[in-house]
Amino acid sequence: MREQSVAQQHETAKPVQLLAADILLNRKTEIDVMIARRAFELFEGRGGGHGHDVDDWITAELELLRPHRHDLKESTKAVVFHAELPCSFAPDQLNVSVEPGHLIVSGERELEVTCVGGVPTHVEKRTQRIFRMEELPVDVNPSGTTATLKGELLEIMMPKVIAVSTPREKTQAASSGR
Which domains does the chain have, with CATH numbers? Predict the structure, then answer.
């Protein structure tokens, strides 16, 4: 991940809302449907030629979701997710869900884009979206999770589940009775 600018280093971290997983799983289904529709439009736009379905899907995904740099690191006590988010998302435009073995990050914001050129100048509204599902390397404790946004850097700190050790039963050596 890149170095933070001086302005970002002095910016205050703001909390990001944590949601139940089923809400964001529904969001994943909605996004998959949008991608499928756009991929089909691309397929039809090419005259219905077969053999480019993966290309159409990837193109549609890139049009609908903003790529972002991210990493997932594991320490002795926690799993930490960092993401550099494009387009200056605000904390209220982001949602995070954490389950013991999964992380979901979703964000959406509206942009107004001024279009100039061959047609009269006009303003269009466009939606910028991010969506990321991660399978975590170990189980984490969702209730201890914190998510903060500092500038364009999202940090999600997920404490690991502490393994409960049960006392081992003492194995008794069998005596042969000699």
Answer: 11-21+66-159 (2.60.40.790)
